[in-house]
Amino acid sequence: MKIIIIGAGQVGGTLAENLANEENDITVIDHNGARLRELQDHLDIRTIHGQGAHPNILAQAGAEDADMLIAVANSDEVNMAACQVAYTLFQTPTKICRVRATPYLAKKELFSNKAFPIDVLISPEQVVTKHITRLLEYPGALQALDLANGKARLVAIRACQGGPLVGHALSLIRQHMPTIDTRVAAIFRKGQPIIPSGNTVIEEDDEVFFIAATDHIRAVMSELQPLENKYKRIIIAGGGNIGFRLAKYLERRYQVKIIENHHERCVALSEQLEKAIVLHGNAANKDMLLEENIEDTDVFIAVTNDDEANIMASMLAKRIGARKVMALI
Question: How far is Cα 9 from Cα 72, in angstroms, rounded to an integer?
Fold first, then answer.
């Protein structure tokens, strides 16, 4: 397959590496010549220095017979314009575009052949926000994925002592919950996958993946571990795009505090958030966390732009009393 990737950053570079290993014909476009040389030194790909949305650059990349365009540059506008140019001038069959800005994402009608002809829209911040919010809905869950447009979910949970089904065969779940339809899709025991059957006995510490209607998830979870109390108090470390989206979504359901290190960003957050409390400071500062009653916090979520800062803040929050911590790495 002939694929053009616009953007040689972390995402574009990783895509190029993975796709090149699958024997695809890869061309990467970026305005950073040094980054392109770095990629070309260890990958069998073609690189072009230039602006990915310009028609002449796309033509040079072979857009006239490309099977796919993946636009993951740092600029939403460049990505969207590149898809438009690829569609209008080169009739590229498949166009994948990364868009981060909420004002664009809020207008779904923008992403169609009548506006910006994008076949697959990717929003990392939106994906992370949805993932975290699903986990917050189900205290104790390890994973939670939407199926059938949210009508059903695949949930992973660790079997714990006190769960009625622990130590018993899976077939008993029908007796315990005769009106609820659920299926156990997989079990991981000591790191090894098990294909479940009705005779499979659930053991303590098994990671159980099950599918059920969204309204029945907590009922099924109660068979595998004692249900935890629902979360109430949340602290978010980092007021960037992800932190803001999380706070905006969660502030109507939970008591939310958001800690941001830059004063100007704090001002902007306080103007856009309705109920969440915005704090100016360092989330990895022990005194600040203690002052904000971290020991009474149900969930501490570190989503700054710095992986090391997220790890350090999460470790500190857990050590001094947060019930649950999540970190973006």
Answer: 8
